[in-house]
Please model this.
Amino acid sequence: MFNKIIMVGNLTRDLELRYAPSGTAIGSTGLASNRKFKSANGEQKEEVCFVDVTFFGRTAEIANQYLRKGSKVLVEGRLKLDSWTDQNGGKRSKHSITVESMQMLDSRGENSGGGYGQPDNNSYNNPPQQNSAPSQMQQQNNYGGSQNQSQGSSIPEIDINDDEIPF
Model:
């Protein structure tokens, strides 16, 4: 079976980070996504969908470091049905998202991450995937052949995965 969900929204609360006995990081928060539409009588309406999300491993640690309540994020993962019995003995259930990858959508000015000399960790997949191909910036710097980087280039070299480029 195929179970995949992609959702864009804003965090409803700061991430709650904890660690499993095995040392794996687990982060929990909520995501709110809204949709605006016109009703049958032409009235402008809005509906909001609230979903709990869970991050694991390095993704949870990065989300905890960079995301705050209100941060806009795209999450990609699996839909999960959580079931339990409440205090009154009634059966309860809710859907949640187990995040496999995320992409931070806030602009750099709104987020505390990034800065000069630091790569912009705007997207992150769990587990990390290493790309052995040279980055586009390296390819652009080496295009044309005769200029050697050791000849006093004032542009710093930035190590960026092609998957991290937002376009």
About this structure: The chain has a mean pLDDT of 76. The CA atoms of residues 11 and 31 lie 5 Å apart. Strands lie at 5-11, 16-19, 25-38, 44-56, 72-85, 91-104, 123-125.
